[in-house]
Design a protein that fits this description.
It is a single chain. The chain folds into two domains: 185 residues, no CATH class; 134 residues, Four Helix Bundle (Hemerythrin (Met), subunit A) (Up-down Bundle). By secondary structure, it is an all-alpha fold.
């Protein structure tokens, strides 16, 4: 069984949306109101990928699938302490998003609520398990409570991940539609175009990788990787041609962004190689999973660095 699945963070395509509330707003799924709400939903979703997901990983890393062994001693790091802050952040972000979201993306609210509810349930029982093992209460009840908690936590961890996947899929669908509209605002002579273009190709690459080894997987993955690398090469040409004609800090931030895409490309090559081996030998699928997890981490780094470009853009420096 493959455990500890990685989930990517969302791009939050518009880091800052300046909305003039005195004017009639575009209520479509790609309008400013929806983009503003999507930024909040992405913020909440990404918060749940931090501390809360660490609780699930902490439990799985320390307690075997079959449950606690009476001959062994267990200890869980109190991940719930940091998770609680992220849960509060997600709760606030989801509430604000639901309030501001137009009807065109109203379907996201119940998915966000379900993800939050699953997180709270997991947090409650993980906290109880962490304290149980910290106090070594298994010495008194011969692991009776530990086994009971294990049954619940296995179910809750699956429910937590399924809820995150459902929310991620819908947010990603809306995000893709917004990205298509957003990128059309800029031409290829603008630095605002190129990081958006590369991000779209990066996301397409990751979407192929998520499918996992299959009959046409390696061929499709290679094609997506070639598109991503071509976009990166074109962006580098643009940056070289632009030279020092950028505003303050732009070239340095863009170079940091490109370095992050280099790492994603390298991790994708390793994942592609592992996938090809897994197609030939299914027992090697866990090797691919590890490489894919690294690829997700690299992708998330790209998203993180993108925030710097959005910040420059919001200050009218990305010219």
């Amino acid at each position: 069984m493959i455990r500890n699945r990685s989930t990517r963070v969302l791009l939050a395509l518009v880091a800052v949306v300046l909305v003039s509330w005195g004017c009639k707003q575009d209520q479509s799924a790609t309008g400013e109101s929806a983009q503003n709400a999507m930024g909040l939903y992405a913020k909440g979703f990404n918060a749940l990928l931090d501390g809360p997901r660490d609780m699930a990983k902490e439990y799985e890393d320390n307690v075997p699938d079959e449950g606690p062994d009476e001959t062994k001693k267990y200890r869980l790091f109190p991940r719930q302490n940091s998770a609680r802050r992220q849960v509060e952040e997600a709760t606030q972000a989801f509430a604000e998003a639901k309030k501001s979201a137009p009807a065109s993306i109203a379907q996201i609210a119940p998915l966000a609520a379900a993800a939050l509810a699953a997180t709270l349930t997991l947090e409650k029982d993980f906290t109880e398990a962490q304290k149980y093992y910290e106090a070594e209460n298994w010495k008194d009840d011969k692991f009776a409570k530990g086994k009971e908690l294990h049954g619940r936590l296995v179910t809750e961890i699956k429910a937590f991940r399924d809820a995150l996947d459902a929310l991620s899929n819908e947010l990603s669908r809306v995000e893709d539609a917004q990205a298509e509209v957003e990128i059309k605002k800029y031409g290829t002579t603008s630095p605002r175009y190129w990081f958006r273009f590369v991000n779209m190709k990066a996301k397409k690459l990751l979407s192929f990788a998520e499918k996992g080894p299959g009959p046409t997987f390696v061929k499709d993955f290679e094609a997506a990787l070639a598109e991503f690398d071509a976009a990166r090469a074109d962006t580098t040409k643009f940056l070289d041609a632009k030279g020092s004609g950028f505003g303050p800090g732009v070239l340095q931030t863009y170079k940091g962004y490109m370095s992050a895409t280099d790492r994603l490309s390298a991790s994708a090559v390793k994942a592609k190689r592992a996938a090809a081996e897994a197609v030939q030998d299914p027992e090697k699928v866990e090797v691919f999973q590890r490489e894919f997890n690294t690829m997700v981490s690299s992708y998330n780094s790209v998203v993180s660095v993108t925030d710097g470009l959005y910040s420059l853009e919001s200050n009218d420096l990305l010219k």
